[in-house]
Structure prediction request, 91 residues.
Amino acid sequence: MQSVKAADLYLKELRAYKPTPLNPSDSDGHVHKFKAPTHPRVPDEGDIAKDLKAYEEQKVEVEGQADEGTESKVEQWFEEDEDFETPPPPH
Prediction:
């Protein structure tokens, strides 16, 4: 019997509850206003011809390539194990 009275009291309070109406200004302070991003600025095109000419005149550098007039030194990076150079004689 006690649970029925509690359920009736709960339903009575639930029916009496009237939520406050929402206003468009209720979100002020909680949500940022939308602001479109700014357009990117166009880079300066005044020195493009000069920069392109300087780029084309650069000397190409390749790793491991010798300079003009000097001989390239080949580095031995593979080291062979002396034990495996010659196979053992058959028995």
Remarks:
- Helices lie at 2-16, 48-57.
- The chain has a mean pLDDT of 81.
